[in-house]
Amino acid sequence: MKTTWRTASLVASAAAVLALTTACGQEAPPQADSQNVGATAGAGDYAGIGAGADKAGSGAQTSQSPSGAAGELAVSTNAELGEVVTDSLGLTLYRFDQDAAEPPRSNCDGDCAKTWPPVPADDATAGEGIDESLLGEVVRADGTKQLTVGGWPAYRYAKDVNAGDVKGQGVGGKWYALNPEGKKAQAAERPGLSTRQDPELGEIVVDRNGMTVYRFMKDEAWPKPVSACTGACLEKWPVVSPVAFEDTKGIQKKGYMTFTRPDGADQQTIDCWPVYTFAGDKAPGDTNGQGVGGTWYAVRPDGKPVGASEK
User: Fold this and answer.
1) What percentage of the chain's residues is helix, strand, coil (to nearest 5)?
2) Which listed site, 71, 120, 175, 302, has its alpha carbon 20 to 30 Å from 201?
């Protein structure tokens, strides 16, 4: 079964210079040569994926592991990443920066292969949008054959449970969805600040890299912005540097201004509140800073904290 879907690719345009306001609140292992497998007959399937996916070993095919046959590969268009390769159930395929493509080699074994199950080469076929000549295989340390795309070993991510999930994108700065050429699927250019819909927190602000933006409840906004995060605090909570309002999307304009910190650096505010990112967030979509110390909270487009009362 081939699963495809098309959504529009969002490309944000960046513009000009921010007009600063004068007062807060104003608007302002083994190696093997890659062999072509694209003509292999049959499209395999595998059973459903459950919460126990992380416990599946390399090459294991259980009812709770996304490690079954890939079946007919397809191309899906992700709103942020563009075209990505999926298996017959619509699950995203990934590549690992520590692998090699010339010649193909996988360096993901043991526990790694539990989180990132290798995609078997058996029964993988080229569907619409897939160049059959780019499909191949590599022999892994355990003797099984793993699918390659453009020479790169292909994996699924245990936390992707629904068609279209791309939760593995950017994990550890080493894992990326595969595009049809075997290259990394890359996020489209984002605005300097924009919003995303978080499944738990709702609509929150993110920076150009997709990292969550936060507020510190010990800061002040009126009559002028004041940051209480200084010294070692800034190592964990880097400030958001100025972003022109024209380079934002979905952010409230009122109170959107910058201020100069005591160290001379300029910092962005939303609704006059200083904003930051969190060093503990390692990948786009992380919200590890939410509620830290009962003083740090993700920010809504109007500058209000998520899950905390205003002063």
Assistant:
1) 10, 25, 65
2) 175
Per-residue pLDDT of the chain in tens (311 residues, 90 and over written 9):
344 333 333 333 333 333 344 467 554 444 444 455 544 333 233 323 333 333 333 333 333 334 488 999 999 988 778 899 999 999 999 999 999 999 999 999 999 999 999 999 999 999 999 999 999 999 999 999 999 999 999 999 999 999 999 999 989 889 999 999 999 998 777 899 999 999 899 999 999 888 999 999 999 999 999 999 999 999 999 999 999 999 999 999 999 999 999 999 999 999 999 999 999 998 888 999 999 999 999 999 999 999 997 75
The answer to whether 84 and 149 are in contact (CB under 8 A) is no
Residue 100's closest CA among 57, 58, 142, 138? 138
Place of tokens 């786009």: 284
**Coil, strand or helix: which one is 42?**
coil
Q: 211 burial class (0-12, 13-18, 19+ CB within 10 angstroms)?
A: buried
Q: Positive or negative CA dihedral for 100, 104, 105, 111?
A: positive
